[in-house]
Design brief:
four-stranded antiparallel β-sheet, 10 strands
Length: 241
């Protein structure tokens, strides 16, 4: 029976939003079975966190990478000459929804944080880059995405995580969005899930982390062992169960 390991990246192979360690790279290099990765983030965010450190820390080998919540497929081959990362396929989220539904979704995300019930406390700083179109999905982060990971930014992130845990903030936002966008959820199979520790992943049912399973099975793997940190309800790994 052909077996493959399928790993989440952020908070599984790497610390949250931090580069993979040499120790973990060494573990991947010593695996006796093939592996693939299925990540919520897009490749540009994963380059410094995962793809580049793999080469720097000496990984040599090949694997499949399914990013942007599993729906953008890359074939990765690491040799002494460098890393060759080739896109194989991708899912067009905006084309699937159509312009009208896509624009309505984005407008709803822009407006939700202006509602009093979802206002963040003054102790949590916010930044402008809150909605990220990753081609095959949308990532929505209430505090915005920072460009420089310094101590202040890390502490701000921790403050939001504590606030979210104490108030169920993101779960309440999900409930609101599911109600506001109910017709799109039903007609287009829209899925709104928790993304990592601070954001939301918005994608289409089936075009999520289940997507790699069908591809890997079609390529002859009979046993796929998934390892991830968010296999709880509303987590961005939950769909794979």
């Amino acid at each position: 029976m052909e077996t493959i390991l399928l790993f989440d990246i952020d908070s599984t192979l790497t610390p949250p939003r931090q580069p993979i360690t040499k120790e973990m790279v060494d573990v991947l290099g010593k695996l006796s079975v093939p592996f693939a990765v299925a990540a919520g983030s897009s490749k540009d965010l994963l380059d410094e966190q995962f793809f580049n450190p793999l080469f720097t820390y000496g990984f040599r080998g090949s694997f499949e990478a399914f990013v942007s919540n599993g729906t953008m497929r890359y074939r990765c081959a690491y040799t002494d000459n460098g890393a060759n990362i080739e896109m194989i396929s991708q899912f067009d989220f905006k084309k699937w929804l159509g312009d009208e539904m896509y624009d309505r979704l984005v407008k709803t995300l822009e407006n939700v944080l202006g509602k009093e019930e979802f206002a963040l406390p003054a102790t949590i700083a916010t930044f402008s880059d809150k909605i990220k179109d990753r081609f095959s999905m949308i990532n929505f982060i209430p505090i915005g995405r920072i460009t420089i990971e310094n101590e202040q930014a890390i502490q701000n992130r921790k403050n939001f995580i504590v606030f979210d845990r104490e108030t169920n903030y993101r779960k309440r936002v999900i409930e609101f969005l599911q109600e506001e966008l109910a017709d799109i959820v039903i007609e287009k199979g829209l899925v709104i899930a928790l993304g990592g520790q601070t954001s939301f992943d918005i994608n289409v049912e089936g075009y999520d982390k289940r997507y790699p399973l069908g591809i890997l099975q079609a390529e002859g793997f009979e046993k796929i062992i998934f390892i991830g940190d968010a296999l709880f309800p509303d987590g961005n790994d939950y769909a794979i169960q």
